Known about the structure:
The protein is an alpha/beta fold. The protein folds into three domains: about 5-250, Glutamine Phosphoribosylpyrophosphate, subunit 1, domain 1; about 250-440, Rossmann fold; about 445-590, Glucose-6-phosphate isomerase like protein, domain 1 (Rossmann fold), CATH 3.40.50. It has 18 helices and 27 strands. The strands form five sheets. Strands 3-2-4-1-10-9-11-15 form an eight-stranded antiparallel beta sheet. A seven-stranded antiparallel beta sheet has the order 5-6-7-8-12-13-14. A five-stranded parallel beta sheet has the order 19-18-20-21-22, with helices on both faces. The N and C termini lie close together (about 10 Å). The mean pLDDT is about 95. 6-O-phosphono-alpha-D-glucopyranose binds next to helix 9.
Amino acid sequence: MCGIVGYLGEKKASDVILSGLKKLEYRGYDSCGITFFDEGNHRFVTYKDKGRVNHLVEDFDYSFFNRLGIGHTRWATHGRPNQINSHPHFSETTRFSVVHNGVIENYKELTVKYLADVHFVSETDTEVIADLIERFSQEMSVEEAIRKTLSLIEGSYALLILDTENPSVMYAAKNKSPLLIGTALEGITLASDIMALVGYATQYLPIEDKVFTVVCRQPDGSVGFRMHDILGHRIEMPLQKLDLALDEIGMGGYSHYMLKEICEQPAVVRKIVARYFEGDDFVVSPKIHQVLKKAEKIYIIAAGTSMHAGFVGRYLLENIAKKPAEVFIASEFAYNPPLLCANPAFLFISQSGETADLRTCLVKIKEMGYPSVTITNVPTSTLAREADHFMEICAGPEIAVASTKAYVGQVVILAILAHCLADRKVFDLKEELSKVAVAMEALIDKREYIHALVREKITKRNCFYIGRGLDFFTCLEAALKLKEISYIQTEGFAAAELKHGTIALIEDGVPVIAIISQKNVNNLTRANIREVLSRGANKIVISLNRLSDPSDELVLMDVHEMLSPMLTVIPTQLIAFYSALDLGRDIDKPRNLAKSVTVE
Ligand code: G6P
């Protein structure tokens, strides 16, 4: 959840770290901090505070010559977001400085056993790591002390460690939480996300669990690194080329990443078509096809927005491929699994590829010997690397915390998978996807009209989305989007279900947004709209042209019924965006959230 960046090389470390933290701020933004080595005055300088990276950049002095440092942007797990709980944290004598992403589950036990006499400054679990290293380093080398600490701590961590007695070394280790090392001629960067390496590394390597990395400046001034297992044995891992460009992660003239990413969706559909079709044939790995085809049932595991894509995926797998499928909330599946069928396959859907709840499930699935496929937007991610197979969403970097184009990309990939598993051609997917992209463009061009609708209709502190069938799944996603960035309490309902209790909340002016793209339930949903209208609701009806009524507020171009979720979700993303904009919310970084949730 937190972002971490460290640098050792020839460049100004504080510049590399602060620019990396800005790119990682979407991972957590309660507070942030940095420690760097001021070479002129031969001292380590630490700045940390509650608040955003801009505060760290603008309100502190970085004029010192510095080429080594570590930084952190925090999503609080232990202790409130405040200056003291911000990272970096120090050991008791301040010799060791640590930034940490993850949760140390046994930090209390370790405190009692090894650190009973230590006075802790913060409420965090991280401080224990710094103190353990210091304690052990009194009897052994620093490297041994860190490895001993790693052998004792349980939980998830990506760690960067500085020893103030040795300003030519930076240590790193990880378990469960992501950490990558990036290399360039000028120096080495470590970060929890590939994004922070862009512009500073030409090659990179995702570090494996329980690997301990030492980055050091050699006597000739060059910087190198070595990796060890927990016992100290050397490990060699090949570096890969980093080919993500800086302009791919810029704002591209838009006011917000979210709006940029909404507008990119037609291009995402076309990019996925280009990637997964050759002529009219699917380019899906034969192994993935074999694994899913053979399975008696496909278990879809996901969280948040990706789970909503999973619901659509289940529908498509069952209706197009005739393959039984079921969707599970990852965090529930991990500790309360259902009775599995004899021959299952597992589909993990995750925009980031790092969600800890999913990873816990994946580890258990692998132990049981079942096959797994990950659908993710980040091919370097943990879930992509650890599943048997993966499919890339190809949506390009998604920076806004609220997922838009990655969601649509997931649904497109699931439609491709469903078609590829079908015994007969149900419809011309390639052709229909190109119609979807055109309809998306027409809709995005009308976005100012949606803004006007928002101003007129979304005027309360609560809101409802209603729909049936595939539209119900879109309602779930639409409601999540609106509440997460505007903080308007919103619920997505199966249209008929509202009257079984929740209709009690409908009163004058409450917005109820209906989605209608499914012919077989058009009239039924319209009856449900009348029910809320007669209780004073303020309606917005979003319908496909062929099912529309003259009184509908937003009529979309016709697309294939089974692909409609790719289109109907877009007005709901825009409704969320403009509602949040008018309320003055921090759209790209909504409160309390993080894009990549690496703790359970
Ligand atoms: C977080 C994000 C959501 C996302 C969910 C699952 O909660 O804020 O936008 O849907 O994690 O993330 P994943 O990366 O696994 O799709």
